[in-house]
Amino acid sequence: MLTVGVAMLQGARHEHMYSLGKAAENLGLKITIRELRKSTDVEGVDAIVLPGGESTAMKIASRSEKLYSEIWNKVRNHSMPVLGTCAGAILLSQQRLIETEIERNAFGRQKDSFQSKIRVNIGEGNEFQGVFIRAPRFLKGSNCPVAWLDEEVVGVLEGKVMALTFHPELTEDYRFHEWLLTEAKETK
Ligand code: GLN
């Protein structure tokens, strides 16, 4: 049984929980999803999802909770797999848990949000529906790309840390969530 924690302070959380359930079903794995709201909730989780939302609001919400500092400790010490999407990817980069640098809102404002076919290097098949919502952009590319919008890197995998500037949880394609569960199983 794997325990997957979803950071619940702010953002698109329930979509990730649904996708995790589907991914577990596809892989025939038993998982428990734990809602992470305070630092003590992090104890014993095997993988973590950092949803998209508003990274500034997440930081403000976490100041009193100390949730994120506990998550960062765990990621640094136990090399636990993490999937960060959009604002989650921003936090991972700002914490230097990935080397790739990121710029917030780099495609423009809400009205500049868009969907596009992207290319991925994960699971079966190479095509993926990229949903970009006030998305950040990786600066200067990356040595560890896993997703591309045309030639631009939009997803990186550094060690066990996956950071995506798009939202796989808003599609019915569960490959990234399946990656997280598979990685968690191997790490456990
Ligand atoms: N623009 C948001 C931020 O900078 C991220 C958007 C998202 O997660 N969909 O935090």
Uncertain spans, ≥5 residues at pLDDT below 50?
none
Task: Determine the number of helices (DSSP H or I, runs of at least 4 residues).
Answer: 5
CATH class: Alpha Beta
> What count of domains describes the coordinates?
1
Q: What is the name of the CATH architecture?
A: 3-Layer(aba) Sandwich
**Major sheet: arrangement of strands:** 2-1-3-4-11-10-9-6-7
Q: In terms of structural class, how would the helical and strand content be classed? A: alpha/beta
Q: Determine the fraction of residues in helical runs and give it as a percent range.
A: 25-40%
**Bound ligand species:** glutamine
Number of strands: 11
Provide structural commentary.
The protein has 188 residues and is α/β, with parallel strands linked by helices. The chain has one domain (2-187): Rossmann fold (3-Layer(aba) Sandwich), CATH 3.40.50.880. Helix content is 31%, strand content 28%. The protein contains 5 helices and 11 strands, in the order E-H-E-E-H-H-E-H-E-E-E-E-E-E-E-H. It has helices at residues 13-27, 55-65, 67-78, 87-94, 175-187; strands at residues 2-7, 31-36, 47-50, 82-85, 102-103, 114-120, 127-132, 137-138, 145-149, 152-158, 161-164. A 9-stranded mixed sheet has the order 2-1-3-4-11-10-9-6-7, with helices on both faces. Strands 5-8 form a two-stranded antiparallel ribbon. A hairpin with a 2-residue loop joins strand 9 (145-149) and strand 10 (152-158). It is globular. The relative contact order is 0.20. The model has no long low-confidence stretch (mean pLDDT 94). It binds glutamine. Residues 52-55, 86-87, 90, 104-105, 133-134 line the site of glutamine.
